[in-house]
Amino acid sequence: MKAILIDGYIDEPAALGVPPYISPYIRYIYGALLMKGFDVIYKTIDSIRKGNEWKFNTDYIIIYGGTTVPGHYLSGTPVFLSEVRRIIKENLHSKIFIGGPIAKAYTIKGGSKAITSEFEGATVIPGDIWAFFYNFPYASLSEKDTYKMINDLSIAGAEILKAHPDFPDVICEIEVSRGCERKSFCSFCTEPILHGRLRSRDVEGIVKEVEILCKNGCRAYRLGRSANIIAYMSDKNNGFPSPGAILDLYSGIRNVCPDLEVLHTDNANPSYIVKYEKEARKVIEIITEYNTPGDVLAFGAESFDENVLKKNNIGSGPKEVRKAIKIVNEIGSLRVNGIPKLLPGINLLYGLIGETEDTYEKNYAFLKEVLDDGLLLRRINIRQVMVYPDTPLYRYYQTHKFKLNKKLFNYWKEKIRKDIDEPMIKRVFPKGAVIKGAIPEKKKGNITFMRPLGTYPVLIGTYSKANEKSDMIIVAHGRRSLTAVRAPFDINEASFKELLSIEGIGRSRAEEIIMKRPFKDVKYMKEKLDKETFEAIKDLLEVNQ
Fold first, then answer.
1. Which of 134, 157, 180 is the last residue of a domain?
2. H-helix segments, 196-342
3. β-pair partners for 22
4. Which residues are registered as beta bridge partners of 4?
5. What's the whole-model pTM score?
6. Pairing between β-strand 335-336 and β-strand 339-340 as defined by DSSP bridges
7. Which secondary-structure segment (H or E) carries 415?
8. Are residues 447 and 340 in the same domain?
9. DSSP states along 371-400
10. 444-484 confidence digits (pLDDT tens)
11. Same domain for 415 and 490?
């Protein structure tokens, strides 16, 4: 039996599978197919687009993908509804199965209502498609998995990594848990719809998966398939955080893949941190000890308008979020090569029930206060809600009209970017700090755009020759991006444009450096250069020491 598995990428509240990420789900499906004796070809939707290849000589076609949260993607784009239908139309000779969020509903952008998906000529799997193939051919369409099954599939499907177009520069999203620890849920969230109540996966299964992925060449991991990493194993601990389980998890991963390059996480619930502060602090300390720099705890604050919070059943208020930000700053702001180990991030969502013009002002005022108090935020994610079927928000909009004021949204978004993001990024990523392992993604003129592997990786622009994975030294700042030069920085070989890109080095100082080089050492350089020119360049030289 010959099958092609098409990775249409997923983006859910607690899981990401858009390159350079590879989702756990696609690995499970691959593992299930191999266990059932299929001869499997793995393709990403981007590779199909690139080769303009839509017809396949296979017995089975499995398409998995879809989004339930809005995102902006640089390295890949989730599958479009029209593309799924094209594949069906051109492959009527094959048995076609479709799974993931797109099997239920489709939209590609925020500020829109998802439309119900229909696929004539294909079989839609509303349950867990990997469980369907795990039990194939004696399976129902609503088949559900277990963590025993997941542990088996995650090991069987690990070798899919080598077929990924970006291998070895991929980051594996690791499933830690499913569902949410809260008893009631936010109006817009698909996590409870897709995954239900909190269900934590056993430490042993996760560690074994990382071990086999490591043997297959993976060196970057994100414990991202979790709505709240702080609540891991709380379902087996009377609702309390379990620092012991977190320690076993993180230390276990480090033991089986000691040369890993990235170990990051994603979501955390600020109200849960505040409610169980003593235990949560221990969890955050453990994560900070074992993770790699640049990690983020994403807080789904969504709004700082109390009326909006209440009407959308969002669990964390401004006071709780503020306290949680402070706690994470106190523990996680330890720097390695100038980069903080662990910082909070803030998600803001617009288009919610009860939103008014005052909402925008309240959100801005909260963020400004955080900035003025010297606290650090790794990133502020400003989105328009994606209205997905079966959520309370979807049902609300069935009977209520609401249209986002785009002019207002864009005004306040721009204001946050200018007034908050611009000074914040300079604090988080100071000049002279080093970002390890940045990967080139796109070239525009003389500028190469790069990102490191990790959670919410920062965008880097450089004039350096960077055609491969490189360490980069920060030299200047944009609102949400950085300018960098390749490390180690050789001032005697640096191009004029590289020198111009350094904060504090204008045309005349760049010319001065070029005219007076070569420099045999820093002491000689200090003697030869104007004092202000030397001060502008010395941070980069110290990195090389």
1. 157
2. 203-215, 243-256, 270-275, 277-290, 306-311, 318-332
3. 172
4. 41, 61
5. 0.93
6. antiparallel
7. helix 406-416
8. no
9. HHTT---S-EEEEE-EE-TTSHHHHHHHHS
10. 999 999 999 999 999 999 999 988 999 999 999 998 999 99
11. no
